[in-house]
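Course assignment 3, question 2. Fill in each field.
Student: A.L.
Task: Predict the tertiary structure for the chain below.
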Amino acid sequence: MLSGRGEPGKDAMKRPLVVALGVAAAVLFCVAPGHGQDYPTKPVRIIAGSPGATNDILSRYLAQHLSERWGRQVFVENRPGAGGTIAAEHASKAAPDGYSLHIAYTATFAVSPTLYKKLGYDPVRDFAPITLYADTPLMLLAHPSMPPRNLREFIAFAKKHPGAINYSSASAGTLSHLVTELLKDAAGIKLVHVPYKGSGAATTALVSGEAQFSALVLPNALPMLRAGRVKAYAITGKKRFSGAPDVPTAAEAGLPDFEATSWFGMCVPARTPPSIISRLNRDIVEILRAPAARDWLYKQGAEPIPSTPEAFGDLIRSDIVKWKKVVEASSARAD
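Answer field:
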């Protein structure tokens, strides 16, 4: 017989089932592979561009320290060519399981969307940001055989010899290309662009004299400068770099308001579980905040700038807009 309070017998029968289902779901969540609490359970790769390029150097440092932290192998997989866009496209198609990381930078995520008519990835749609990594200015360099001693003399020399100076870049569409195109526009000079496959090859071309000029990020420029294999005309940041205090800024050297820096950051394919993104952010940020990482980055010519995933995502979106204006104003286009 039913009481006047309804059907408590049926409600009571439902409760154990609901509780059981809730417990089962919690257990499944905890043991499901790929979630943050048990990640990683196998080797992790960081997809980077050309060997010897700045993104490769930074990737290897992080791979070493993540390996030590996790007790799992973290290795760098190089995909050179096309100014880093080949590596980015490859990374965008990786499984969103946290086992394929990618080191993004200004050229591939902020500049390339405008420089390339057809790009095989969308920096916003196809990736989930983890954290910013480092920021570095570029250095305007010349082969030691070049007669000019400073940037003003270089500009005057280039005006007297239009089209006679070759400049190397890490590939069409990279910052080494775009910044030199901006220099040409700002100074009113003609230089011949010779693109290479990566920063390492562009640096080698400058050191060998195959190219007479190049704009390179500091991690590539400083070792060559310290070895006396190149001469420096200016640095493109707002302030001088402590590791090369005698090199003036471009503004000090005669080009007011001329400034360009390159940021680097870690990301994963879109749809990677939030728990893994949170774990990666926590671990990478802790590595970057360590004094040892700061000291190492300064020696490379970079500054650590760890961030939240949200802050990195905001920077990507705002820099796409910023560099679109710069690219269109300079008429620079990828070959």
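Instructor remarks: The first helix runs from residue 8 to 31. Confidence is low (pLDDT under 50) at residues 1-8, 12-34.
Grade: pending
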